Amino acid sequence: MPKEVVIVGGGVAGVFVLRNLLATKDEVPGGMHFTLIKREKSGWVSTCGLPFALRGWYEIDRTEINKPQFFLDQGVDFRTENEVTKLNLGKNSVVLKTGEEITYDYLVIATGRKQSVKETKLDGVFTFNNEEDACKIEDALNTREVKTAFIRGRGIIGLQSAAAFAERGIKTTVLGGPPSLLPSSLDPDMGAIIKERMEKAGLRFILDRREITAIRGKEGWVKSVVIGEKEEKEEIPADIVIIGKWMVPETDLAKDSGIDIGETGGIVTDRAMHVEKGRRSLNTVYAVGDCTEVVDGISHRPKLNQLASTAVAQARVIADNILSDITGQPGLYSSYEPCISPSVADIGGGLVMGSVGVTTNAANHAGIKTISGKATKLIKARYFPGATSLTMKLIFDAFTKRLIGAQMVGEATIAERVNEFAVAIRAGMTAAELRNMERCFDPSLAQLEDVTIDAAKNALEST
Amino acid sequence: MPKEVVIVGGGVAGVFVLRNLLATKDEVPGGMHFTLIKREKSGWVSTCGLPFALRGWYEIDRTEINKPQFFLDQGVDFRTENEVTKLNLGKNSVVLKTGEEITYDYLVIATGRKQSVKETKLDGVFTFNNEEDACKIEDALNTREVKTAFIRGRGIIGLQSAAAFAERGIKTTVLGGPPSLLPSSLDPDMGAIIKERMEKAGLRFILDRREITAIRGKEGWVKSVVIGEKEEKEEIPADIVIIGKWMVPETDLAKDSGIDIGETGGIVTDRAMHVEKGRRSLNTVYAVGDCTEVVDGISHRPKLNQLASTAVAQARVIADNILSDITGQPGLYSSYEPCISPSVADIGGGLVMGSVGVTTNAANHAGIKTISGKATKLIKARYFPGATSLTMKLIFDAFTKRLIGAQMVGEATIAERVNEFAVAIRAGMTAAELRNMERCFDPSLAQLEDVTIDAAKNALEST
């Protein structure tokens, strides 16, 4: 009998478990059968690609990378516009809203995250989490006269939406908390570089403690947002509003079935990505992606990561372990390592930010003393094409001088540098080792002394 | 009294020792004084930039990054068109060809490398090692009708010259030994990708054991090259010839003064870059750059590296150690690590190659059994600008599965990836760790599953 794998949720997390297992299906004696249940009607949508669609790089439907039929054709019971209402762990089954019950050999919980925002009845106020949201926003931009926009949220999606609006000539205001942009990835001095660049592109940022106190409309459509109270009150015109606040893990199903939820609100897993119940791992039940909490690779504390890259890395581990379990080959077993959050984002206007490890603030919060070094330099000699400037900040443990964080703002080479620093953090490289490291050189591609060396040197000089 | 530092040679190696020490001059009680002696009349020339000048990216004089006056203005006794004829280690002095003797506290030998080729009396036959060579070649191209070219040498400079000629519409033949291009950096299957691409651009490669048997001329200028003997003989028309063969360390001065020369022909140093005499380190005499031999980071055997990046890394170490010695601060001491040869080159025609660690052949030659994995993939989704293809080969120790080499051919992101793999090799990352690693993601900048993961997976599947 083929083994039944049931996947709850069809975002990048669930889909990558499915894709990995599909690719190894033939290696399994007796075979595997897959059921994936998701609320949306789409197949696999690259939600990270949606802000680029809004910027007009391509049509929104381009972000649906695989249609449901793609999976159906491979024998997957791919159920869209459906929902699991109960995980019956004692009976190894899940119950759908239709009442149907599906028995599993392996269960994968990939329920993602949800936004915890009060709804408003006005039209023109949107969230920006999925294809449906993107279509609504795109539709509003195309059918109405949108001159002003208001965005709540200073995270990646907030900034990418703001950049998209600015490119369309819309006067846009972004409201976020203090003190700076992307505070979970960038120190205030690095966030300030992005703020300054985006302000030059005409964006307005309000980074203080004020919250939205009212959303006003006219004929059922939003016309302005009021922030703050009393003398701090301000009314900001807005023909469109996007609420891109922090998202919380969607864990209702897991919680109801008694699965352990961590202090961050995410599902707790072991390194194999098994969920736990009463602190004991359940060997046939996995969780993956935004609904889980991970362990920070520097502070060793639980945190939410909520990046597609995390989901993809976890999905590989889960596929390995299901395969290892079915085939009885322990050599296939893998584990998800403590997370150092390598991240990169094209913010718009040619600006790219990258970050990995901890920020100074996060390190200090965890009781880790830090030193840091910073440098700005062209990535190659001025007379070569693509010689853009890059600002780099490196954060080291003050005692060991080992790298624990890196932040960059620039235009190019940042994604690859984030991956280099991810390896360097894992390897425990010190400031002196980074400064003395031999780096490859070709004058049309690099500097003889890279900005990394300057930043590491700067950190050493600060001690 | 200021400490006297004498530097013999003004290539990138000597100049970077000088630049590093100049930057820290004020930290030294009593100060430092510098004398640099070089044969050429230029200041600091980026020889790596010369092939790009030949491709017309900029004028040749652009490659002189600092003129002699730049150093003279900083109080350096910067002597061009001069030559050291003797190192008088017993008397802590050097003798110039003028007979003048200069006493040193610290001596830095940066004599570089030389070409060991028979000279021909014909005009139109050039080497390509320095600015003078570049000017002569440029001059020939501008003043004569050059329709055909012949290049001896399948290394970086040979290929870059060939690409420059091809861009100018010159029918070019490249002669190199078997079996493939850039064999010290790339396995034959990876070299073949470059060969194929360059052949499409109209270049002809002859990669066999034949050597040049005659160079024929007309009115004193070259007109053809004859290769091979008897029935293998072939005459190839050539209005210009470049001999870009392997270079040997320039060690005559060192050898004459009794400094140890290694089995590769380079000057032996310890990790601090001190030269050795009778296997004992000389604490005030350093060697740097192409004239030295390094220890390979994988095979632990001596080798010649002859890359500007190696010279720059060694120069940092020497500056640190001179400073440490003068100030009596042992904390400043640094060491040059065994070399894993991170290298990258823009070959021309948009093609970039990168390499780090050992090739399969070099590993096998050192008795190391290997496994390898290979993959070709776009660096980002097809509908984003700059979505070019990259072929990656990863080489692992067959027993430990640790990464010992990486090779790439593509158009972008290669320099940064070489640096990532340089860190990964030092960190001893395994194939499984590379495959499971979390990498940063933004759809406009990367794939959710990078080519690295595919290549590592491919290697694991091969076992």
Key traits:
29% strand, globular, FAD/NAD(P)-binding domain, 5-stranded parallel β-sheet, homodimer, 463 residues, alpha/beta, Enolase-like, domain 1, 6-stranded mixed β-sheet
Task: Describe the protein's architecture and organization.
- The structure is a homodimer of 463-residue chains.
- With 463 residues, chain A is α/β, with parallel strands linked by helices.
- The first copy, chain A, folds into 3 domains: 3-113 and 248-332, FAD/NAD(P)-binding domain (3-Layer(bba) Sandwich), CATH 3.50.50; 117-245, 3-Layer(bba) Sandwich (FAD/NAD(P)-binding domain); 343-461, FAD/NAD-linked reductase, C-terminal dimerisation domain (Enolase-like, domain 1, 2-Layer Sandwich), CATH 3.30.390.
- Helices cover 27% and strands 29% of the residues of chain A.
- Chain A has a 6-stranded mixed beta sheet. A 5-stranded parallel beta sheet of chain A has the order 11-18-12-13-14, with helices on one face.
- In chain A, helix 1 (12-24) packs parallel to helix 8.
Radius of gyration of chain A: 24 Å
Uncertain stretches of 5 or more adjacent residues of chain A: none
Helix content of chain A: 25-40%
CATH topology of the largest domain in chain A: FAD/NAD(P)-binding domain
Distance between the ends of chain A: 65 Å
The CATH architecture category of the largest domain in chain A equals 3-Layer(bba) Sandwich
Strand element count of chain A = 28
Query: What composes the largest sheet of chain A?
Result: 6 strands, mixed
Report the mean per-residue pLDDT of chain A as an integer: 94
Oligomer: homodimer
